[in-house]
Amino acid sequence: MYRLIFLFLLITHSSVAQVLGGKTTFAFLDLPVSPAQTALGSINVSQQGNDIALSTLNPALLRPDMHTHMQLNYTSYFADVLYAHALFGYHSVHLQTTFAGGIQYIDYGAVTQTDASGSIQGSFRPRDLSIQVTASRQYLERWHYGATLQFVQSRYQQYNSSGLVLHFGLTYEDTTHHWQAGLLAKNMGLQLSTYTPGNQEPLPFDLQVGISKRLNQLPLQLSATLHHIYQYDVRYADPGFQESSLITNGDTVKTSGQAVDKIFRHFVLAAHWEIGRFVTLTAGYNHLRRQELSDPQLRGLSGFSAGVGVVTRKIQLRYARAWYQRSAALNQFGINLPLKEWSY
Q: In the record, which residues are listed under signal peptide (predicted)?
């Protein structure tokens, strides 16, 4: 186990040179693939539950009780972009390992193709594809570790690229006090082929840590997750706008609270409430998303997300909605079938 932790730290240390959004390839790797992920604010590495989609947040969250769980997710994204994700889990008693296989397909619809003068040449359909394999094991009583290997491919008319991506995660679970901590290094890897010859691009690497706690007196689970913990300032560097300045009546003054804002942009907060036996409610808040995607004058619910689930022994139905801007939100639907419960 200690050798694995050392290897994990070595890998993450060699990956921190990779940069944030807008400067990486395969950005679709950061899209939320399931309602559970969306409702939690898109980032969570420690959530406790029996939803196989949690393994897409942290491969160490893949557990033996997710054996034969089959999940299908459908997302209505912005600008009529649609994508789907499927996942299946299997636990091997002989290997003492839980596996999961999944596939994600993103369809951007038909795009008009023109030449330099604007003459229409036809149309094409850009798309992204990801195929993944996850393995997770338990170490001693409270530790779990897991890894996900993804083959990714993007095809945008004549521009094509493929790559291999690795995610590695750890969790520590205290069942007595009902809390769990998680650590994840995601999107490590390289391009196997580039869009243009000799132009190797970095992947959207992230290093995340978080904790989830179930309350003793209420069926409520609270989570706090930090992303990009290796970099202090994760704000988008817009040369045409300085968030530290505020123009009032022709005068430029400095705004306060800049350090607090920089720190809080690393946080994603979430709450998961079990109502009775069959219904769950989830809410999340992503401060970075609210600060960078919303209109400062019309923030609305930007950065917030919410989800509802109907969970029974034989079927799990979930829906989530995340507000990126006041007038722009994504909707996500998912169904999870524990197939072992359907056999007699």
A: 1-19
